[in-house]
């Protein structure tokens, strides 16, 4: 469940009962087969307790929650004041998207161009060696291939914050998830990242 005011997802934690994490704390995302509307993602996330746990997040929460565009029961139980904040957030997000700004983007290496995405296109995330940035594997919504970028945590966590320059691994990743997972950490910790500009 996503909380628009703190910008965090809430999950159960065996040690703390409940924990709040940002999108960049996610480590792995996988859409569960079968479920139709809304579809559900199985995620692995790095918890503040030091362990990694599994959790479930709906597609709506994942892609629309950070934009304040999520509706439904969650806000029905909230105060009128929060409803107003949510309405304002939604309006701002909608206007920015209409004006051609994208909440999230990445650089597709096989296509050699930036592409707009939503968080459900994130596939694997891992902190880089120096912890100052995050390695992300993204499945391109247009060509379906997987690219690995090196970005700031803000690039992942803050909608409409797109790093002007990001690192791109010059490597074409296998389309099948299992092999991509294997190659991800190898490439993340050994490969050279080439800088690309992210203006869409
Ligand atoms: Zn925990
Ligand atoms: Zn692509």
Structure, explained:
By secondary structure, the chain is α+β, with helices and mostly antiparallel strands. The protein is built from five helices and 13 strands. The strands form four sheets. It has a five-stranded antiparallel β-sheet with strand order 9-10-11-12-13. It has a three-stranded antiparallel β-sheet with strand order 1-2-3, with no helix packed on it. The longest helix is centred in the middle third of the chain and has 19 residues, at 80-98. The radius of gyration is 17 Å and the shape is globular. The two termini are 30 Å apart. 30% of the residues are buried. Mean pLDDT is 85; it is low at 71-78. One zinc ion is lined by residues 108, 110-111, 115, 140, 142-143, 145.
Summarize this structure as a short list of keywords or feature phrases:
single chain, 200 residues, alpha+beta, 5-stranded antiparallel sheet, 3-stranded antiparallel sheet, 5 helices, binds zinc ion
Quick gist of this model?
The chain is α+β, with helices and mostly antiparallel strands and 200 residues long. The chain is 24% helix and 36% strand. The protein has helices at residues 59-64, 73-76, 80-98, 153-157, 177-190; strands at 2-3, 8-13, 17-21, 26-31, 40-46, 52-58, 104-108, 113-117, 122-127, 134-139, 146-151, 165-169, 193-197.
């Amino acid at each position: 469940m996503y909380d628009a005011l703190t910008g965090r997802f809430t999950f159960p934690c065996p040690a703390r009962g409940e924990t709040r994490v940002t999108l960049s704390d996610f480590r792995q995302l996988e859409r569960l087969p079968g479920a139709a509307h809304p579809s559900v993602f199985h995620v692995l996330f790095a918890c503040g307790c030091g362990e990694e746990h599994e959790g479930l997040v709906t597609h709506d929460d994942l892609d629309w929650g950070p934009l304040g565009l999520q509706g439904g029961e969650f806000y029905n139980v909230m105060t009128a004041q929060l409803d107003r904040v949510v309405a304002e957030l939604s309006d701002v997000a909608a206007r920015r998207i209409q004006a051609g700004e994208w909440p999230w983007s990445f650089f597709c290496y096989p296509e050699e161009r930036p592409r707009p995405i939503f968080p459900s296109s994130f596939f694997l995330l891992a902190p880089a060696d120096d912890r100052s940035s995050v390695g992300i594997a993204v499945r391109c919504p247009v060509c379906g291939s997987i690219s690995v970028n090196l970005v700031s945590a803000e690039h992942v966590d803050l909608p409409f914050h797109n790093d002007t320059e990001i690192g791109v691994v010059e490597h074409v990743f296998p389309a099948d998830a299992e092999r991509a997972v294997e190659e991800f950490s190898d490439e993340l910790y050994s490969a050279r990242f080439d800088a690309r500009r992210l203006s869409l």
